[in-house]
Design brief:
This protein is of the alpha+beta class. It is about 35% helix and about 20% strand. It has a ten-stranded mixed sheet, sandwiched between helices. The structure holds fe (ii) ion. Fe (ii) ion binds near residues 129, 155, 323 and 352.
Length: about 600
């Protein structure tokens, strides 16, 4: 029987489903795109249904179910922790086993998927969280040999994993365990700075460009990466695990008023060192900017130390990275530019959504010994819509909203969109299959001219709730990368930050961050033909091989359906919308009334 492997992240935030077969990835999607609950940690029932639909398969075709969770992993470390911290430890063990049972008992699984148990003929596999992270990157990278490094908050009682990855084998060489976590340290400090929602670390990374790292030495007293002992985190100031798993507190992943709850993970004594913690929503001070810069700088030091240690252990300077910390593009930029490694592949969904992909790949290529497939070089593995489906959505939505669309040829669409950019217009762009991972990569994007006068200010004025310190991302023709940026390594998934070359800083001012950097996406024609041709057409007209790209959403997960795209366009201050081949310019009266775009 041909293997069809379904990989799930079913217990951490950003739950997801990924389907792989002998030829590689078939489909991958995060549950939040369908159920519209950002970062949700529910069982990914709809994502499972969607990847099966995209593959034209049913659950009875699935030969193997790979769950990115193994509560029996790291037993020794857990028992040692429980012995030292009985109250917290037992709570942790209880939560872990409860979730495991909920998610893996055959009857419970069938029930959650929404099918009779008899249809579930698959073999069940559990893949440890960090092994899944490393597998997601290694098996998608196409590298024959690499050092695997996964760094995050925690998963299956592990916070860092180093592995020697060769052929179809992943040989784990080191693990760090809670409460020593670099990811949780970053999250704790992010909370101290008033960014208290799940997944706001990237905001602090953006804010860091506005400050000076004057507190970096102080932060070095709290956490470090020791080659012998691994991550060492001071529990006096950062009682992360006792906060996360104390019986009084609810755990990560639980919803509170529709939001993922993030417990406070720093001790009040921290205020004696840095002054009062910032309250969410209050103005940012120089202290906050400097603290962000210091946090980012010291994180980079620890991250680089982890990479050096890992390279020493494996003797290999090609890296595959994953785990939430691998989303830190500034840190990744330093790894590349300071030559701490040679080649690198960062999984497009480096956060916990990606563990579904890693679990599937691990079972397929390691356990089932299917020959490895070439590099996965693009991330367009989600839902796509036919022109007929888009037209039906337009017929349903447009008259009600007072919008009219016209169908354009491919050439007309490119010409019209480039024309709109050159008039300073903001264009919603909904094309092809949606992106896998947290970034919009040109299929569910809001696009604009990166150098139009005041474009950054125009966008910030039109985008509600978007902090002005957050940068907009550049998408660049891959072959022009080193002309515009000091960076030679390609970045298809927008997870490495490079310096903008001085001669380009004014020409692409809207995507040039405060510290003269950009979170670049390189685009090659074989990765995304239409997007590449659009940037190429823009370059032909303006001489600029870069466009500005931000995600297509409004205080919600990135739009999933054409209906959502049209509705988001209608209520916000975008000027034009291209949904498939259909083009719409907003009537002036409606534009005046529209709300500002709230892109959070
Ligand atoms: Fe993780």
């Amino acid at each position: 029987m041909e293997p069809l492997v379904l990989g799930l992240n079913a217990s951490h935030p950003d739950s997801s489903a990924v389907l792989m077969n002998r030829r590689g990835v078939v489909a991958a999607i995060c549950e939040e795109r369908i159920n519209r609950l950002k970062h949700c940690a529910v069982f990914p029932r709809q994502a499972i249904q969607e990847v099966l639909r995209l593959a034209g398969a049913s659950i009875s075709d699935v030969t193997d179910l790979a769950i990115a969770r193994d509560p029996y992993a790291n037993k020794g470390a857990k028992l040692a922790f429980i012995a030292k911290n009985p109250r917290v430890g037992f709570s942790l063990a209880k939560v872990s086993l409860q979730r495991h049972h909920q998610n893996t008992a055959p009857q419970s699984l069938a029930e959650q998927i929404g099918v009779p148990e008899a249809q579930c003929k698959f073999t069940l596999h559990n893949v440890e969280h960090h092994l899944a992270h490393i597998a997601s990157s290694f098996y998608w990278s196409g590298f024959e040999h690499a050092t695997g490094l996964s760094v995050d908050g925690a998963g299956d009682f592990c916070t860092v994993m180093v592995a020697d990855c060769k052929g179809s084998q992943i040989n784990v060489l080191r693990r760090c365990h809670p409460p020593h976590s670099l990811g949780m340290f970053y999250t704790a400090m992010t909370g101290f700075m008033g960014f208290t929602r799940y997944g706001e670390e990237y905001k602090v990374m953006g804010l860091a460009a506005y400050g000076k790292p004057i507190y970096a030495d102080q932060l070095a007293n709290f956490v470090r990466y020791d080659p012998e002992k691994g991550v060492q985190l001071d529990q006096t100031y950062f009682p992360t695990y006792s906060r996360v798993y104390d019986r009084e507190e609810r755990t990560f992943g639980e919803l509170e008023n529709g939001e993922i709850r993030v417990p406070k993970m720093w001790d009040d004594s921290l205020e004696q060192i840095f002054g009062p913690a910032r309250k969410r929503g209050s103005p940012l001070t120089e202290r906050d900017n400097n603290l962000a810069a210091s946090l980012q700088r010291h994180f980079e030091t620890c991250y680089i130390d982890a990479v050096k240690d890992a390279a020493q252990r494996t003797g290999c300077r090609d890296f595959v990275l994953a785990g939430g910390c691998a989303l830190n593009g500034v840190g990744n930029g330093r790894l590349v530019m300071e030559k701490h490694l040679d080649r690198v592949y960062v999984h497009p969904a480096a956060g916990d959504d990606g563990t579904g992909a890693g679990a599937a790949a691990y079972v397929l290529f390691n356990k089932l010994a299917v020959p490895r497939t070439p590099e996965v070089s693009h991330a367009y593995w989600g839902t796509g819509w036919t022109d007929a489906q888009i037209e039906a959505a337009i017929n349903e939505e447009a008259p009600r909203l007072g919008l009219s669309f016209r169908k354009l040829s491919r050439e007309e669409l490119l010409r019209t969109t480039v024309g709109a950019f050159c008039e300073g217009k903001i264009v919603g762009w909904f094309q092809g299959r949606e992106e896998w991972g947290p970034r919009a990569l040109g299929n569910r994007s809001i696009l604009a001219h990166p150098g139009y006068p005041n474009m950054k200010a125009i966008l910030n004025a039109r985008i509600k709730n978007r902090e002005p310190f957050r940068p907009f991302a550049p998408a660049i023709l891959e072959e022009k990368l080193s002309q515009v940026y000091e960076g030679a390594h390609t970045v298809p998934f927008m997870n490495i930050v490079y310096k903008t070359r001085p001669e380009w800083r004014d020409r692409i001012s809207a995507v040039n961050h405060e510290d003269n950097t950009g979170r670049v996406q390189t685009v090659r024609r074989d990765q995304n033909e239409l997007y590449y041709d659009l940037i190429k057409a823009f370059e032909a007209k303006t001489g600029i091989p870069v466009i500005l790209n931000t995600s297509f959403n409004e205080n919600e997960p990135i739009v999933h359906t054409p209906q959502q795209a049209i509705a988001c366009f209608a209520r916000t201050k975008m000027d034009c919308l291209a949904v498939g081949p259909f083009w719409c310019e907003k009537p002036e009266a409606m534009a005046a009334k529209a709300e500002v775009i709230a892109n959070d």
